[in-house]
Amino acid sequence: MLIGRSNIFIWFIFPISRSNHTKMCNYCGKMITINNMARHVFDMHTKKTNFECQKCPASFFARSDLKNHVEEIHECVPKYKCGSCDRMFVSKRKRKAHSQEFHYWDRHSDTCPNCQMKFRDRKKLSKHKKQCLKEGQELEN
Question: Which of 10, 73, 96, 116 has the lowest tally of Cβ within 10 angstroms?
Answer without folding.
Answer: 116
